[in-house]
Amino acid sequence: MRIPNHPPIENLQLSKVLHALSDPNRLRIVRSIATKGEEVCTYYSYEFNIAKSTVSHHIKTLRESGIIKVRVEGSQHFYSIRTEDLNKKFPGLMEMVLATDPESY
Amino acid sequence: MRIPNHPPIENLQLSKVLHALSDPNRLRIVRSIATKGEEVCTYYSYEFNIAKSTVSHHIKTLRESGIIKVRVEGSQHFYSIRTEDLNKKFPGLMEMVLATDPESY
Asked: How far apart are the C-alpha atoms of A71 and A88, rounded to whole Å?
């Protein structure tokens, strides 16, 4: 099983992080990861009624920008927010995102 | 002279605002508008060495998302940040953006 690549904190770029967050479904996934903790890919596919392949693409965008980290357990991938890294590099960003009403996504 | 359209605060969407900010040159333009005050389009073209048509495109993206407002005076357009609206709708966003070192754009 290939371990997914995560950019180190010093390589996080604001434009990439904001691009990753510039999609309503990715914002919904981020909120869900942040509030409900680790889940597998299929969960978001059911919860938000989007194709599993689309969820995988969103997850990849979020991981490559540095917003989430992926933990591999057997054949399953679990996701969590890189809260500490994001708060250090872009203070206030995740707080603002999570405080925003999904109606305004 | 057509007066540029500005979305009202209740229509501002987080995904659109973050998309508008997800480009290093647009981040540079926003920082410049926020720190140096109103300037005309040509100024950013010179300051950041990007084509005037590209600056116009960036300005349009920033205006349509609700980040900047445009004031028309004769044949010239002047730009400013919609700080009050953004702070009300997405508290902490502009502060985080302006606190970020351009090296991390």
From this structure: 21
